């Protein structure tokens, strides 16, 4: 008699919020008071190994409850599924979640539902990597090109990238992969830091953190801009004076500007030699980005953290609208869709410099860039992963930085597992921190 197959028994969700707005960590021109938050999901099984799949999507406070509700709406697609089949082919659950026609109506493939799909899909990949006893980047680099392409949804992008082309890119990417994997383990993957550049920080704090970033081995920092031009000029001058001419400095407007305004504002900051201007306008405005790119050259244009799916990325690339493509591990539909986006970037020869920071985004996206380096693009030239020194202590397998580089993870999984004590403390509103905080507010109001 064959053993009973193990199955997913539960999809548990948590509304986890951190009070980062109180120190202005994460503040920018569009988001002055973010409370970094995670709509967190745990896939539990009846397997004897005790392994779970962990995933999440990132929000900035209010609305995280809406994101959790969206994840809960997907439970019926996952509970009861065979674990071995799910982990052998995560693309099946990706297709089922995207294909739920009644929930798809809320997108399609964009917004809250798509981010929820990404959280669940990423949890499946975390479980698959744990069962394979490999960090996710290695699971992906060890996979055959044909299997990786089977994980990609080519609907709506086949006019720009065919499955056959994707297989060819991945086959070419495997040449020399073993050597690059060894280099990755030895040196890590280059990062840049946004930690000095939050808009709410004083000039003294900006200067101190910028100098510290250079001392820590970073060769690029980033500043938030877009609220007040005179203020931006002063802050860029301060930052450039602190880091000197040999360190790259990017600027990030977080979608603040109209097209013409973006060109004028960026030109006004050109004397400080910004390497790229990030999210200069709406992430949906493909032609606007193209016009800005023409207008601000040689400053590069970067975007992607709020680009909602592979289709918009395809158009940005087709229109020659960006110099730097910025994937986000938790904005689109999980690992599967990010594979599609990485392949599109490789096809068009555009470097990928991921968005990170937030809650756990550094932990996740490092795996995708490391896969891209080892088994697809084959280079780290002009490629950096954003790093923000926030909230890593809440994860079992946190990011480790060394000389401005991300150290390659060695623990099995997607580095997504949060510490149980952090979940207990910061779950909203009943966790120990928030329960005490809310009680204090009520007491003060009485």
From TrEMBL:
Keywords associated with the record: Lyase, Magnesium, Metal-binding
GO biological process, one term: carbohydrate catabolic process
SMART domains in alphabetical order: MR_MLE
Ranges of residues in domain Mandelate racemase/muconate lactonizing enzyme C-terminal: 203-299
Enzyme Commission identifier(s): 4.2.1.68
Name of the protein in question: L-fuconate dehydratase
Record keyword Metal-binding present: yes
Pfam family membership, one: MR_MLE_N
Cofactor(s) listed: Mg(2+)
Reactions accelerated catalytically: L-fuconate = 2-dehydro-3-deoxy-L-fuconate + H2O
Principal EC category: lyase
GO molecular function, one term: L-fuconate dehydratase activity
Keyword Lyase on entry: yes
